[in-house]
Amino acid sequence: MTDSILTVSDIHKSFGALKASDGISLDLKPGEIHALIGPNGAGKSTLIKQIAGGLKPDSGTVWFNGKDVTGVSTAERARLGLGRTFQISALAMDYTVLENVVLGAVGQSGSAFSFFKPAMKDAALLKRARAALERVGLRKREETITSELSHGQRRQLEVAVALTLSPKAFLMDEPMAGMGGEGSKALTGFLQELKKEAPILLVEHDMDAVFALADRISVLVYGKIIATGNVDEVRSNPDVRVAYLGEEDAA
Amino acid sequence: MMRERHINMIILALLVLVPTYAHFAEEPFTITLATRAVIFALAGVGLNLALGQGGLVSFGHAAYFGMGGYAMGILASHAQNYEPIMEVPFLIEGTNSMPVIWLVAIVMSALLALLIGALSLRTTGVYFIMVTLAFGQMFYYFTISWPAYGGEDGLSIYVRNQFPGMNTLDPIQFFSICFVLLCAVLFLVNRLNKSPFGLALNGAHQNEERALTVGINVYRVRLVAFVISGAITGLAGALFADLNRFVSPTMFSWQISGEIMIFIILGGVARLFGPVAGAALYIMLEHFLGGLSEYWFIYLGAILLFVVLFAKGGIIGKLSRKEISHDG
Amino acid sequence: MTTLLLIEQVLNGLQFGVMLFLMAAGLTLIFGVMGLINLAHGSLYMIGAFAAAAVAGWTGNFFLALVASLIAAAIIGALIELTVIRRLYDRDHLEQVLATFALILIFSEATRWVFGSFPLFLNIPDVLNGTVTLPGGIQYSLYRLTIILIGLAVAAGLFLLISKTRVGMRIRAGENDREMIAALGVDISVLYTMVFALGAALAGLSGALVGAIQSVEVGMGEPVLILAFVVIVIGGIGSIKGALAGAILVGLTDTLGRTMLPVIFGTFMEPSAATTVGSALASMLIYILMAGVLLYKPTGLFGST
After folding, report:
1. Of B7, B147, B317, C202, which is least surrounded by CB within 10 A?
2. Considering only residues 96 to 135 of chain B, which have any Cβ-Cβ distance to chain C shorter than 8 Å?
């Protein structure tokens, strides 16, 4: 597993009697988009929290970039290069677009404890922030207040904020949610480019997007990964058909 | 419609002009009122850093205000009685030098804020409000039951403390000292708000998850903000004690915490000059309504209720017509 | 210290705890159901005490006075819910704090205006005066024992109300999902007014019961309010069980601390210093307890994580 950027090995997490993660293992290799799918209540968000930080597994390990990060905080994992986007945009809504990416640059540079020099006049921070905006095509909107952005633009900004971290891997939670057909197509192309830079662990509901994008797919059901493989393998896997299509159709 | 900066300049100008006029018209009482307003403003600027920028609704800032007050009271009372504060393991004497007293007040309230903040910041939301309120009350009861420094009756200091080259008993000179301190703190807080630290603090207020996932240690950022906030309010407490030449447990009471919050809400939350405008308005209300009726708190309560329910953004918000909201 | 004295202090602690429970139960219910932090809860405590003192002074009947405290606090509670509080449910906590702080200012000054600044006194009725002999030969104040029993009865009633009745079911549903309960056709605003009035009535009753032991005066509510906050932080917000456990814990810690700390310090210090240090520390004890709980479990003993 030396070539994996992110490795989850045999993690368990229970809430009372509910086994939300029941011995999950998966990995993310350089250059790939690895999609995680599964029906509602399969334990996807519990798994994401354990990968991103904020929830500690009962047992098992999370490796990131050759380091055991199981007991490491969310902020620390971000500084190690785990870029994160959310299903519901997590942005500072009263800030301008530029301020949001500068915030990312502040986190990346570890300058949150410099007290005197204005952040919005710091050349290094601005350079990093504007480069990220350029990548997602929001450079012209940098003075816009974030709450005035359209839904699709907020998604782009999320990615830009993650980019300021120069991430070694991305963890994206339903980036396609609520995007129109056009925006969805544009984002698909963008992610195909992005994965060359850093692999993406993609949690997505939109099956068309998953089948179009993913190099590998893992299917999570009742806290267990029931199948991992490329699109065709997963499509033809009988267990997946049972889980998704119901017993009778699979027969 | 005015720009917020212009309103700020007008507020500062009024704060200088009113006492200057009063000085020449020989109305020392008006100068004292203005000094009170400036000191309350300073306490509010301190709280506003935590509350406005950081979204940390501390209902216990009286703890730092009182700590600053008692730092002054204890140092000055020992100086006035010519008794050292302690002799073992090393000698600490009292003092009546303002700069030394300010420094001690700032350090002591910062340490207290560090302790209370480290515990309280483990909680959020409504817990945080209740916990800070409770810790504030703890010091109120402690000062009441601790007899060494006057207990419930408090401590009187007979002579105002000294500042090199000034006659601190002259109302206008004492006012000037307080006013210069307020301006210096406003300048520093303004820089702080615009710094990477301020961006991180307010960013974490708007969206904690985002701040965490770009690698910002939100707890530590908030704790540092809380400590600076407490230190500023502590400095205000030391000045307030010097203005009255008296400290008592009431400086620790929950009403003080509430009043400091009122300055902020009257003036405008998360605006640099919000607490300044709010404190000035509060002093005017206290003076004029208090003159009209013994029960002026009823009117204050009604005004506060009106501002909260219908006039978000406070005075500066109304004047500059630019609503800023910082709700999660 | 004798065992008898200790038992008496434990009972006093229980009585104090039960009073705190009546306050904390209302606060925690109102927060759990409506998501509101209500600082004016202390004012309702004061209103209950004043209503009781006024009716007792007028009729001479303590039980009518208790009924009056319940009714007055419930009516005032319902009134402020209808006029002010319901505008605050969707606001952030800061605005809730400030608006209910404004209500404290208004109620305190209005009470001072009507009743004056001097404390009123509410006498313990003759039936409840004197002491009873408990098993083991302990003499204990009948009135305080009655308070403990009333408090425990209220606690039992609340548990039954919430776990067994239709209204309780709605309250629990309201905690979990406001839209759901509205969709089921329950008029949520009536439910909210009822819950608020219920909490207010409990606070009022508590104020009246304590009013007969202490004096009835303006500002009596807020120290109790803050203690009730300590109770909630310790017990966990939104939980009646947590409120009861926290209240008893705080009541016992505070009462026993005040009696025992000076004695304990007296074993290794000179008496006057022991009294000073002991009572100063005792005044801080429950806050230290709260700090300990925060370190151990920031969401409180019975709070959900």
Report:
1. B147
2. 119-120, 122-123, 125-127, 129-131, 133-135
